[in-house]
Amino acid sequence: MRYGFVIDQNRCIGCHACTVACKDEHDVPVGVNRTWVKYIEKGAFPATSRHFAVLRCNHCDDAPCIEICPTVALYRSPNGIVDFDNDRCIGCKSCMQACPYDALYIDPDHNTAAKCNFCAHRVELGLQPACEVVCPTQAIMSGDLDDPESPIARTVATRKVSLRKPHKGTHPKLFYVGVEEDALQPTMTETEDTHFWADKYPGEDLYALSSSRHGSPVPGGAREVYDVPHPRPWGPKIAAYLWTKSIGSGVLLVAAFLMALGRLQEGAVLNIVSPVIALVFTVLTTGLLVFDLKRPDRFYYLLTRPNPRSWLVLGGYILMAYSLASLLWLGYGIGTGGMPGWVVAACVVFGIGAAGYTAFLFAQAKGRDLWQSPLFFWHLLVQAVSAGAATLLLVGLVAGLDAQVMTTMSIVLLVSLAMTGGLVLGEVFLTPVSEDVRRATELLTCGALREKFWGVFMSVGVLLPVIFLLWACVQAQAAWFLHPLSALLALVGLWVFENLWVEAGQSVPLS
């Protein structure tokens, strides 16, 4: 049994009865919607036309929201309905990033995610969903797609139907008849800086609000004239989490490298300061993740009700393992014995995991094409090395480490910064895999975010530190101030980049 929807847009008159019925049936608060009607207009006066598209959860057979949800709050019922357990949700908003259709939202009354659940409570009683009951033109049809005798199965089998973003591989079960494809693909319509009756929230659709390239991307002149707001789920706290995680994981990676070279075998910097920094910034990382939850009081559900397929859960385990390994390093460092090789190896393995697991988490956010970059894991790893080397350079200045150690760390920072710049340029200038990626990278390179990207990150955070570090190699007497200056600039550049990457990834609308 696989319940699904067919919406006949030839019949739809854009009356919003389905939206109102859904709100009434589920007590949906003002400002958010489980189902809504999008308007587009085509043509030029006087030959213009308006078209509608009823948008909602697609109840996908391969739903990415289920895979990424860390507490199994989202699940598939035996009848194929993707349902939601409000009592398990921690409000991490990862499901909103995974859904390519903007179907989920945060309920302001409960601070948990919510979406269309096919009126499961009605379906269990043999009733139709509320939206189907009230539709005055019978444009909405629901039923069992696996029953060849059902009206919905016959409609799908005999009529031309369309799906939203089938290339995402989610296998949606919401089919459209007679719909204008422009209404289903936001990148096919001209972006607008306002809604039909209201302005857009600042940053809600950064591409529409700031792109210098207004105009229809395809012949025909399709224009979006009404949609509901979809604010960006993640903000500065997630960017800060990426920054602190880079420092926390990178410090011991660099310390282990220096130990292997014989540059830093003994002393407080290796034995005590490095693991303390790793622990402090890893704890900050965990704190930022918890603080960003809409229901931080439920954070322990990650341990008591985990979804082992979610990289939010796996990442939490990796951070805990890395913290334990860092504690062992600190314990042996405080003690009189030498540092066992297995402790260093554990810190390196879990440090690499802590630095890079976010690439797999972002890859599960299938709604955001920019974050699907195959270079992102290596970018995060090199970024962690840069952050660790920069932090230890600052520590070395205070601790009075000898010039040989400082020079080695400066070389590590120099190489990692050069690699960071190359990886980022590869991510933004390689042939984009989709229009969403092209628009997001356009914002970074020549759009609203270009000044921060080129002027702060690439110039101040990458190019200047590289120049200063090369200068320090030539003028050794200037190294005492060029090394810490380069380290500070590298950390500032990293902070700016994390904010840009999070912002640009969410800049293109999904619906």
Structure in words:
This protein has 511 residues and is α+β, with helices and mostly antiparallel strands. It contains 18 helices and 11 strands. A 4-stranded mixed β-sheet has the order 8-1-10-9, with helices on one face. Strands 3-2-11 form a 3-stranded antiparallel β-sheet. Helix 9 (236-261) packs across helix 14, helix 9 (236-261) packs across helix 18 (479-505) and helix 15 packs antiparallel against helix 17. Mean pLDDT is 91; it is low at 211-219.
Produce a short descriptive summary:
By secondary structure, the chain is of the alpha+beta class.
Task: Indicate the overall shape.
Answer: elongated
Helix/sheet category: alpha+beta
Q: Strand count, sense and closure of the main sheet?
A: 4 strands, mixed
Helical content class: 40-55%
Q: Count the E strands.
A: 11
User: What is the residue-mean pLDDT, rounded to a whole number?
Assistant: 91
Low-confidence stretches: 211-219
Spatially, the strands of the biggest sheet line up as 8-1-10-9
- Percentage beta strand: 5-15%
Order of helices and strands: EHEEHEEHEEHHEHEEHHEHHHHHHHHHH
- In whole angstroms, the N-to-C terminal distance is 28 Å
The DSSP helix count reads: 18
User: Regarding quaternary structure, how should these chains be classified?
Assistant: single chain
* Gyration radius, rounded: 26 Å
